[in-house]
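User: Could you walk me through two proteins back to back? I'd like the raw sequence and the structure tokens for each, with a short line separating them so I can tell where one ends and the next begins.

Assistant: Of course. Protein one, sequence then structure:
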Amino acid sequence: MKRREVQPGVEWLGAVDWDRRLFDELIPLPDGTSYNAYLVRGEDKTALIDTADPTKRETLLAQLADVPRIDVVIVQHVEQDHSGSTADVLARYPEARVLASEKAKPMIVDHLAIPAERIDIVADRSTLSLGGRTLEFVYSPWVHWPETMLTYLREDRILFTCDLFGSHLATANLLAGDHPRVMSAAKRYYAEIMMPFASMIRKHLDAIAGLPIDLIAPSHGPIYDQPSRIVDAYRRWVNDPPKNVALIPYVSMHGSTAKMVDHLVAALVERGVHAVPLNLTVTDIGEYASDLVDAATVVFGTPTVLVGPHPKVVFAAYLTAALRPKLRHAAVIGSYGWGGKAAEQAQGLCASLKAEWLDSVFVRGMPDSKTFAALDALADQIAGRHLKLES
């Protein structure tokens, strides 16, 4: 795409990556993504905020073909999907300076091989006049790296937020409007990338609360022309208690664990709990992460492979702990052929999870009446605790 005007003197650049389906060799991208950069022109200086992923450097450079001068390139976040074309921009504009946070400077040198003498540090809440336009830099560490900062364009009331408030969503729409698909993608993005840093994000939301904002311009996904929609959503995701939701990510090799999951789901539903079974052999892990934002309980269902949980359950348990959701309760159910410690190992993978572990239910071979009774008892435990959430 060509440059697109956001407001007079402020333009969107970058690339919409329609075909990318995996991010960081880890995160599924069912809707592609974008790498947003922004050109801000003042009377005296021109600033480029962020660049583009190295795979799209030619797109960015083509968009800059008729831009005679760039004075500063602002690196809000050093991760390469935002900063990876910085060196190419500097090569085209040899007089341009890089502006970044104090912690970002050595990271830019290490990750991008840009000479330190071309990088200037901007302090938290410091400003830069472009002539008729003023940029204010707002440090926002751990959103989601330690060096991240936001950039506020005072006169136009635009907050450039890099990863904060982003969404992995390829779209031809410059503005988000009130499209529900945008919020769904933003929630998934929050779950996959921002949720581990919820306590820090809470502080940053308070820090920007006093800024008058007309547009929020992230570096992934469309621009929010109704900024309260995404800010209010983040406040809910960060602050609200978990809901009456129990997730059951599971794998079943020979049908035994699946029978247990089916019984537990039915028992939970009968007791008024919203139960969500997720077969990990076919479930998009990003959907699971998104579901974790609201869930109060997770129950891992696993057969025993050798002496431990199935590898897909291992990954789900590790991911759950890494994302640090607001879960209150957890349990493990499953089956085994001759022995093993699948429950203990699954719990060990979630050692950092701040949740109460409920009774495990395991059976050798196929479940029987005693197994189903134990699952009913587990359902009673979960339902009783969920009722307290709502009281």
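----
Protein two, same layout:
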Amino acid sequence: MSVIAEPTVTLEALTARLVRYGELRPCTTAFIDARSPGSDQKENFTIIGPGVAENPEQHVHISLPHGFNIGGARQPPHCVNSQHSHTTAEVFVVHSGTWAFRFGERGEDAEIILYRGDTVSIPTGVFRGFENIGTGTGFLFAVLGGDDPGHVTWAPYVFDMAKGHGLVLLENGRLIDIGRGEKLPADVKAQAPTTAAEAAAMQRVTTAEAQAFVARVGELPISARGGLNGPGVTETPIIGAPSTEADLPAGKITWPHGFRLCRLSLAPSAATAKHRRMEEEVLFVQDGCLDFIWDGEQIVLNPGDTLSAPVGLSRKFANSGSSPAVAYVVRGGDQSLNLNRSSI
């Protein structure tokens, strides 16, 4: 394990790595389908990294490279994200709402329903789309693999639906909004629709196969060993191979992603041991309030907040609230976790 000198991090510096849910800046025309009927009310967020948004006006909250990207999608009931595929891993955690994830060129191959707290990891080269089928607005926390997650490949019908709604996708992945008076550039062609042959080459999955993509919150194993586990603290791996260094078992989903994901739960008044990480670590709060404590300073994270912790910083997490605190934690890399307790 490489050793990184302990950084000095001020409250101001750490606050710059914090994105409050209420301060998220959405883009309502991030993708070519954003004005197509049925998909015209979705909001997309790029929290960490460039993401895959096609609109250059999409706001990036934290541009610092992490080895993965963090984003989000917020949609009202019956709003659909059209069928598409990615070239890197795509993972969603359901923060709120009930969601139908559908697979296949038109979503005809398979369907799985996810509820609050569930996680889905969708392999590359698979057409996928999702709809909020709940009764209220829902939010998905998203993780994409790599510093550059590439461009989206849309199912052929998406281009047909977008015609006449003012959005044109270029070959370089940029979206032109003709409806706002933007002009098509002379030196870049419009993206040709995905061909039938290209669509046929995509991997197809059955509903039974798609269940292997899902880690349901009610079925996560409870283990008291390793990691940050301790009195009132439970760390549960979701994505990742076993970690000898942190003495954590494998998550349900073990294929390489370029990052790992776990669920961290703290009972009221519980706290983790003080520790350091030698890889990027991002916390997304699902429930309750989580105290991030370092070097005599403290930030309280609320539901929907996202925090990127500096590499090498000694930190501890605590729950000073009266109800359980739950966070989903993303850590960089596929290999063993760099958990350093030497400062405890």
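The radius of gyration is 20 Å.

Let me know if you want the two compared in more detail.
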